[in-house]
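== Polypeptide entry ==
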Amino acid sequence: MCKNIATQIQKTEDYRTLKKSIVIIILNYILYKRGSYHHVAHMKFEKIKPNEYVDMGYKVEDENATEELEMHFIEMPKFIKKNPGVEGKLEQWLWLISGREEKIKMAEDKNEEVKKAGILVDEMSMDPKERELYEARLMAKYNYDSGMAGAREAGIEEGIERGEKLKQMQIAKKMKEKGITKEEIEEITGLSQEEIKNL
């Protein structure tokens, strides 16, 4: 969080230009004596010491030092014990992290982004042999798809060329019927003397 703040502004820049910094800390153990798996913390002031008190006439005093710093602590053992559903996005992502297959499937059904992340997690957790096979299958699929797309494009281009040729031959045939010379037909249509002769 400190690094995030420190890199936002340069010397002599106004501190008021700082953007809000949020950190998310996911713990695989219980850290706080609090009855929640998700805690949101801000920088709070300590209680005012009587010998430092100055009567400024404030009816309500600030409790937070700033709203621009926010920390989220998530304790996974408490989350698993609570065993919530998969309706909220936070819960969907936490179930992905938990490794509980049944809940992960439910979360993936609800959230396409969680599903994509699950695929990445599976890829990263493969051993070298599994990864090699997986990448070979991906490459084979990529090559097949590319080959098919290329063949389709080539087929379309070939069809266009044939259509153009047929059109030129029809024009040449009409010109021939009207008594236009082979040389002129060749010049206008681009057909060869042999092609014009065979019309």
